[in-house]
Amino acid sequence: MLSFLYERYLFIKRGYIQRKSILSKINKDEPSKCVGDELEDDFDTSSESRTVAK
């Protein structure tokens, strides 16, 4: 029983390390973007006129 649990632990640990290395490679290739960066690209409000309703 202990050997099964230990092997399961090693399997999970190995998968975690592989995922972590894959994510670090992705982050090195692409610079991280903030959430606001995408929103600024989607909405162009420079041509809209700003009026205040009274």
Describe this structure in words.
There is one protein chain. With 54 residues, this protein is an all-alpha fold. 67% of the residues lie in helices and 0% in strands. The chain has two helices and no strands. The longest helix has 28 residues, at 2-29. The radius of gyration is 24 Å and the shape is elongated.
Descriptive terms for the model:
mainly alpha, 2 helices, 54 residues
Overall body shape: elongated
Mean pLDDT: 71
Query: What is the straight-line distance between the termini?
Result: 75 Å
Low-confidence stretches: none
Helix content: 55-70%
Largest sheet: none
**Secondary-structure element pattern, one letter each:** HH
Task: Report the structural category.
Answer: mainly alpha
Number of helices: 2
Provide the β-strand percentage band: under 5%
Q: What is the rounded Rg?
A: 24 Å
By DSSP, the count of extended strands is 0
